Protein: alpha-L-fucosidase
Organism: Maribacter hydrothermalis
Amino acid sequence: MLKFFMLLLLVFSCGENTKSSILYKTDSTIEIDEDDNKDSVLLKASHVIPTKNQMNALRDEFIAFVHFGPNTFTELEWGNGMEDPKVFNLENLDTDQWCRAMKDAGMKKVIFTAKHHDGFVLWQSRYTLHGVMSSPFQNGEGDILRELSQSCKKYGIKLGVYLSPADLYQIENKEGLYGNLSEYTLRTIPRPVEDRPFENKNTFEFEVDDYNEYFLNQLFELLTEYGPIDEVWFDGAHPKRKGGQQYNYRDWKKLINELAPNAVVFGKEGTRWCGNEAGGTRDTEWNVVPYNEDPRTMNLFADITAEDVGSIDRLMEGKYLHYQPAETNTSIREGWFYRNENEQKVRNTDDVFDIYERSVGGNSIFLLNIPPNREGKFSEQDVQVLKETGQRIEETYGTNLLENAKGYNNVLDEDEDTFLVLNDDKLTLEFELPKDIKINRFVIQEDVKRHGERVSRHALDAWVNNQWTEILTSTNIGYKRILRFPEVTTNKLRLRILDFRATPVIQHVSAHYYKTRPPVLEIKRSKEGMVNIAPKMADFKWNPNGENPGENLNKGLKIVYTTTGEVPDINSAEYIEPFQFADGNIKAVAILNEELGSVSDYTFGILKENWKILNVDSELKEHTVDMLMDENTGTFWQADENSYGNHFVSLDIGEETEISAFKYTPPTDFNSGMFEKGTIYSSLDGKSWKEIESFEFGNLINDPTPRTHKFKTAFSTRYLKLESDEITGSNTSSAIAELDFYKN
């Protein structure tokens, strides 16, 4: 510690120059001493820097994942390992199309699932027959990874490989190597195979069992015959274990370091999982995280899933400080593998662009999965979203609006090797433009390459009406922080550093403009009658991240509404928070920068707060009858198909009311129980029932949208019964997502 404080006395901060502000030795991993306190740990943390490979991974920013294999044809997320290779009945393959789509999106690297958990390999491995060599694809001569590697070189896309440590084929196969309790002996990698020599003549000696030898042999193939490889991707998934099998990652690491020296390793000490598969991001994503062991020598790595990963309190819990960027991973489709075009929803462009800004602009790497279809191509809808996302990225961030600004050249230029060391008593950077500009995005980058992560809180101001106005505050910066805010017109901007771990060192700043779009609104009501109006969310139910892209992308959005049936305008009531509303029509519109969006219109039926179920013929445990009146179209009641007679449900709506119409909302995830024909009954006492009318809804299977039936004559009642007479497709189970009744 004495030497450490002597260093502090000898080094000082400096102004606008590229002179370093190193107060302690820098490294990707720094040990915490027993006598370190919070101040010294913070200073050490600010000197933890990325390795060359980690820095390259950060620069890649937006990368692709490609899940392909037997699951593509069986429509399963996880195979069982015993699929007949013939199910991989691929006739066509267009990896050039994959890479063109990635290029259009602005992606710089692709991670390919060379082997998923099922153990089926997508290259011509010497060490197994469970793969493309036993499939109909190109008569067993096909090599998916080979073609992708060639396409990557053609289009300038970096290549990474995912070789699943888990292997269900090696577990389930009688001759399988996984967990076979074989002895650990000294073995040579790669194991020679007759008539299949390696061009790379390197060999390695490892003391391993059968499965680790198998894994190392295949890893050798991937790293020497398809490269260069820029990332090796491991995960912790274990669909099934056997025989206490252990993974010798330290041996794998040695092979990777020797054969792919530029490859960053995901899931180990290189890069880490963000903690979810939904595209969710943390508001504060520190890439300096604590470990209790030296991660450079560890064999097993636990997932880091907590909300707080790098605060000083968390750092104090560790014994080592380690630089480890997060990868924010999710899929463009509902699931990792392609299933179909009709039921498997695709993220829209707003959603993907929002995740891009939150992840890349939140000090992490965005890894987006695009699963090829059974034609060996990315589906058209996926390609279109990728293209539109790339266009938005280029339109927004392709032009730096501070290009002609007066200020600090070291952070305004495009040279990554220049930076600005701030004085501890002057933590404000001002930039002046020759004329007013409109901006709603501001990008800040610290010099993490040399100085690590230091800023913990900062603010952005704009010169408006001859005075400084604070636009927003945020937390850490790291490799990159994208600030998003309501559009402002100004010719001067000011960045203020409010708190820091050590003398801040800024590498780059830029200002940008995203063309905002007043979003389509969605009007919802709770069972208790509270109305919420917000930008409409995409119909994407797989691993929801809880973010609303329409709100995130369009800062400064104003919503106005009416309850009188009139079309809202700029002078209508502003929606601020949920409000009570019994029944009737609500119209709403989004206003952004004085531009009005399209009008959303919703008519609510009578309030369901006091509804009660009188009787029901049957219900399934996971789809109970109360789900038809919970104001949530994502849930539904389903009757037991084995119940006797027509399916029915009877309700007490709380008080006698005059009814003029009803609406049936079918489930969208279950098309085998929709009401095609039925009958409505009424009662004043809940015992004696009177038939009111029959109804018929057509084409529900192809168009599962809400249907409204208006009664010929309005009637007064307190009790209502809906009975099915005919179910779509001659099925025998009824289902209702939501049921609504309307007053006269």
About this structure: Residues 380-397 form the longest helix (18 residues). Confidence is low (pLDDT under 50) at residues 1-15. The chain has 15 helices and 35 strands. The longest strand covers residues 707-727.
